[in-house]
Amino acid sequence: MAVADAKSSVPQAAASAERHARVLPPTSLQPEQQQQQQQQQQQQQQQQQQQQQQQQQQQPERQEEEEDAPVEHVEQDVVLAKGPFGLGIYFTARSDGAAVVDPSVPFYRLPDDSMAPGEASGVIRAGDRLVALQGVDVQSWSFARVVEALRGTPSGDVVLRFHRPPASAEPTAGGVDAAPTASKPRRWSSFFERAQPKDAPRDDALLDLELQLRRVERELERERKCRFLAERKNVLYRNALRALGDENAQLRYRSLRDEQRRAELQRERDALQLSI
């Protein structure tokens, strides 16, 4: 029995040795593969870091190039048909005296609530600076002179050249009207300096009042401009009526002279017939 057990144990040991021999080589290769994978990952990470560093180095250069690049300013000519109610554009004086399209109320409507020529063109925007009128450069003119020239332009096609600054430098209502904007930030800054967390309801009420005040200011500004436009229309109507009255009087005077002339010719003709 002992001999049989010994004989049977020999093949089992050999089989187990073969199994170990088959299993050992793969386990010995796994650490090498892991090392290779780790090395590859490290290389990829290093490449990514290098790319990020290169991109970070290139970004300041691009920013400097963009900053050094000249800023494009757009100028365009617009042809508007001026009628009895003007061009339909509100101009205001910038801090340097230039005439720009009013940022708060750029256009006005016609009496029938239709769009005036300025708004109907679709190319004029709030903040555009007027640089030429009928081909004449007006950049060195005072605002009053520009307004007078616009009013004195006869009806018909009017060529206006506008200068539009880049988007980053477009003027806002604060950049055009210096007096109101100087007071509004002071009100806001004093409000926020005095505001305390415990006074949240009162702060909300003050904020609402501030917004209402701004709304009322805008409405008053619009009303002022509408009244100015109405007065201007009345002046135009009076001038038109006066011109029609003068023309009518001249026509009556001419017709009266023609009648007198015809009467004289008729009398002369009658006298000639009697003499014959």
Automatic annotation (TrEMBL):
PROSITE patterns: PDZ. Residues 1-72, 166-194 are annotated as: Disordered. SUPFAM superfamilies: PDZ domain-like. This is PDZ domain-containing protein. Residues 77-155 form the PDZ domain. Residues 33-59 have a biased composition (Low complexity). SMART domains: PDZ. PANTHER family: HOMEOBOX PROTEIN BARH-LIKE, MEDIATOR OF RNA POLYMERASE II TRANSCRIPTION SUBUNIT 29.
